[in-house]
Amino acid sequence: MANHSQLNFQDASSPIMEELMGFHDHALMVALAICSLVLYLLTHTLTEKLTSNTVNAQVIELVWTILPAMVLVTLALPSLRILYMMDEINEPDLTLKAIGHQWYWTYEYTDLKDLTFDSYMIPTADLPLGHFRLLEVDHRVIVPMNSTIRVIVTADDVLHSWAVPSLGVKTDAIPGRLNQTSFLASRPGVFYGQCSEICGANHSFMPIVVESTPLADFENWSSLMPS
Question: What is the dihedral sign for C-alpha 118, 124, 130, 132?
Fold first, then answer.
């Protein structure tokens, strides 16, 4: 859950999000090294006397051609690795279908039984004490922890986007098309997200709440839900 004046990402709750945060820190260190080098060269240029010595011009051109290429490689290789990890879905333990509407979500658990429900934002006037305004819903998505969850995302009317930052998930919901993503919640908890594609007047009022529970609690919940 994000806090006021928070400068960093939310705490990672899935292996993919941990990888993304690691790559973010790696890219920042590369950017810091580049900025430091440029600042040093600018300072050196402004403080030293100008000369017309061009003996080493070929060496300099070689350096400023090879060095940016090496920087791009150090960024591209880990980036491609994470992209392939995010795209790979191997034998999911559970399949969840998320359907975007104006302005609520419909969820279908078709692996277990015909379990379908709509998830609406709870209005501020009806919000229980201690719950988050504009983020809490009447029916949460319940998933078992330490299990690979495949999410099939689509929309019924306009473009939407199913996004949960702490799980490292963001997939567009497009009418007439099925997109898929996956995540693995590495700890129990409640994770909040929102529609991340402008979809109309109430775009800000269709939150996403994913609750990760132990497998036994998930089985009890699924058995009690009406089909």
Answer: positive
pLDDT at position 227: 59
What pLDDT, in 10s, does the model give residues 69-78? 999 999 999 9
**CATH number listed for the domain at residues 15-87:** 1.10.287.90
**Per-domain residue ranges for the chain?**
15-87, 94-224
pLDDT beyond 60 at 96? yes
- Asked if residue 190 has pLDDT above 70, the reply is yes
Q: What is the pTM of this model?
A: 0.83
Asked if 211 and 218 touch (Cβ cutoff 8 Å), the reply is no
168, 16 contact by CB (below 8 A): yes
Mean pLDDT, residues 187-205: 92
94-224 has CATH 2.60.40.420 classification: yes
List C-alpha distances in Å: 180 to 62, 114, 116, 129, 186.
45, 20, 18, 35, 20
Asked whether residue 22 carries a pLDDT value surpassing 80, the answer given is yes
